[in-house]
Amino acid sequence: MPKRRKKRVVEVILSIIFISIISVLGLGKINEIKPDYQENVILEGNADNFLKIYFFDVGQADSILITHNNENILIDAGTNEMGTTVVKKLQDLGITKLNYVIGTHPHEDHIGGLDDVIQNFEIEHIYMPKVQTNMKTFEEVLDAVIDKGMKIETPNVGDGFAIGEVNCEIMQCGTGTKEEQENLNLSSIVLRATYKEQSYLFMGDSEKENEQARKWEKTNVLKVGHHGSSTSTSEEFLKQVSPQIAIISVGKDNNYGHPSDEIIKRLEQEGISIYRTDEKGTIVITSDGKQNQISWERK
Ligand SMILES: [Zn+2]
Hints:
Elements: H1 3-32, E1 51-55, E2 64-68, E3 71-75, H2 83-92, E4 97-102, H3 108-111, H4 114-120, E5 122-127, H5 136-147, E6 152-153, E7 160-163, E8 166-172, H6 178-182, E9 190-195, E10 198-202, H7 208-212, E11 221-223, H8 235-241, E12 245-248, H9 261-269, E13 273-276, H10 277-280, E14 283-287, E15 292-296
Helix pairs in contact: 2-4, 4-5
The structure holds zinc ion.
Zinc ion binds near residues 62, 110 and 227.
């Protein structure tokens, strides 16, 4: 073999080895990020310190876990039927204590599973808006709270608290007005969480009236209000929040036609990436405070 040709062969072999090593390293990273990932976002720092937000697939309902440095917030617990599933999902994650449990508003698709959660975990605070209903599911939650020797707290707008290094602010909370009593969605607790440079807005089932009632800061990730219904996510609100990522918690083929085509179109027009629990199953956001990595259950 001529010397030049030999050199070329050696170069090719070295390139193949080099590319293989890079691929293996790359794949190793991807495999760590189970079960799937949005794009090749490489998070910096120790994975134990990352913020994690789980948007559990609970069908046509909401249940969200925010966890950082072994401290936890649970926002809603799905329907009555889903209660034991939510409990199991939390137990599978090794959770025994919830620092904050938020029942955004007393509708069955949000607080249905709360009694199971209350019975199964150590809990520091339970937040709910100040509205009443005679629905059985609400009474079951009240009974579970009483049995636990706890009290439901109603936070005020502007109240702040933290888990780990995640700062939270109550953006909205029902006070029991006539309008809220007639449409419980309007009483929804809305929470904004900030972790370093990243922010997250959890809308519950709040509607346009709520969106118009205050100013909203720019936020990276929006948990879309009311399962993507056209009653929420008004244009003006979306312009103010201007998220990069929208999460919709919604059941496949639900009776309400959620999410509405109009809202999906509105989000797409703003160039917002949409992730839906009916399509992806449980969706997980992992953040180092600079970037968000998204993974999900279904391939
Ligand atoms: Zn709902």
